[in-house]
Amino acid sequence: MTLLQAKNLAQSYDGQEIIRDISLELGKNEIACLIGTSGVGKTTLFQILSGLHQPTQGQVLLEGKNITGQAGKISYMLQKDMLLPYRTIEDNIALPLLIHGASKKKARAQIGIYFDEFGLSGTQKKYPSQLSGGMRQRAALLRTYMFANKVALLDEPFSALDALTKHDMHKWYLNVMQKIELSTIFVSHDINEAIYLSDKVYVMGGCPGTIIKEIPIVRSIPDRDAFSLSPQFLEYKKQLLDCLQ
Q1: Strands 65-66 and 210-216, how do they pair?
Q2: Of the candidates 186, 135, 196, 134, which has an alpha carbon nearest to the alpha carbon of residue 165?
Q3: Does 2-74+149-244 carry CATH code 3.40.50.300?
Q4: Rg, Å, the chain Cα set
Q5: Looking at the DSSP assignment, which residues form a beta bridge with residue 13?
Q6: How much is the pTM?
Q7: More confident residue, 14 or 197
Q8: Any idea where the domains of the chain sit in the sequence?
Q9: CB count, 10 Å around CB of 30?
Q10: Helix axes 163-180 and 133-147, enclosed angle (nearest 10)
């Protein structure tokens, strides 16, 4: 089932074309990665998909409905966790509900059921400075989920983490995405991460930026750690490197 569609998106600023003729699809419970060199237009594309910017051309469809230029339909999580330092974790996560008019009591009750699921039990009254980088990213992802719980756009969500924490977060992320049924597109500059996490990878290139390759990731080995050591994984890595070069 196709959940999100982008059709022939283009964007220009001051007469300069930034992205051109971009089309992509995201299915229900699917994880897609967007990868490409810096400056190719990935952020511009995310801003259009999230409704923050109106494209020069094209449409964004969510469950078949045109949501082009409509913010709040799709969640967008920036690279930094952006947690407010003077708010507790529960009040940071409740922020989307408060913005939409819920009382603090009702918002806290609504988010409370997710703390265990996201591995955040016991952090409700803590402040962001009291949490590790991985825990802050979990809190940021839960807050993103509270904005809109069908599709999320994640901009390099794991780039600030060390290698061991990142690997643990990858496993956690796959597990929690399956439980909450949140379809995601994430930006990454890490080819290994893209192959490990994704059901498909979109490669952006060119100037203006466009989708130059779509690579479905089909795993012959169900265990992802074992798959990451397989010849098949290396072949996908070669394909992506060839595209990017």
Answers
A1: unpaired
A2: 134
A3: yes
A4: 18
A5: 16
A6: 0.89
A7: 197
A8: 2-74+149-244, 81-147
A9: 19
A10: 30
